[in-house]
Design goal:
- By secondary structure, this protein is mostly helical.
- It has two domains: about 110 residues, no CATH class; about 55 residues, no CATH class.
- Helices cover about 50% and strands about 10% of the residues.
- The longest helix is centred in the middle third of the chain and has 19 residues.
């Protein structure tokens, strides 16, 4: 259906065939990476109910699990959420929570190269691909392995590709010199 709506972009859309959905990509690339960074300091809590296909029921299971954990361990669990429904459930149950309101506009006027790279990576993996000038950066593509940090880059112009390759080789040679700042 997407290809009929955007026939000039068949090659780009074709890379997304039989791949994760946008929601699944957000979970796999962003949430999973965050979880991996804290899992050694986290405590897993068993769910009191079965998994449901209804997100509201799953939210209630999470709140019940936290309530049970709080009562059994005399601990103070704090839920971090950007979901207003989950925040309402926590408030109703008397559970501690932090609600993170996502910004819809930002007054950013500058960024570091690392911040720009991070932004491009996140956009590419969440939306499947992002175009920047004459370059398409794919976060999801045919033949992608299990390494979630891999991206595929496609250049529209051979001259841009050769210039990029030359600069990458220069960077690799400079890195090999092991010069401390």
């Amino acid at each position: 259906e997407m290809m009929t709506c955007a026939p000039d972009h068949r090659g780009v859309i074709g890379e997304l065939e039989n791949k994760r959905t946008k929601r699944s990509r957000k979970a796999a690339y962003i949430a999973l990476k965050e979880y991996r960074s804290i899992r050694d300091r986290a405590t897993e809590i068993a769910s009191p109910g079965p998994h449901s296909h209804l997100s509201e029921e799953n939210d209630r299971n999470i709140v019940r699990a936290l309530r049970k954990f709080e009562e059994e361990r005399y601990a103070l669990p704090v839920l971090l959420t950007a979901d207003i429904y989950m925040a309402d459930l926590c408030m109703a149950e008397g559970l501690e929570y932090f609600y993170f309101d996502r910004p819809y506009t930002m007054e950013a006027t500058s960024c570091t190269p690392a911040e720009l790279r991070h932004l491009l990576f996140n956009l590419a993996v969440v939306f499947g691909f992002v175009r920047c000038g004459g370059i398409t950066i794919f976060g999801e593509y045919g033949g992608k392995g299990n390494n979630l940090d891999e991206l595929k880059v496609r250049f529209e112009d051979d001259a841009e590709y050769h210039e990029f390759l030359r600069e990458v080789n220069i960077c690799r040679q400079l890195s090999a010199l092991s010069i401390d700042r």
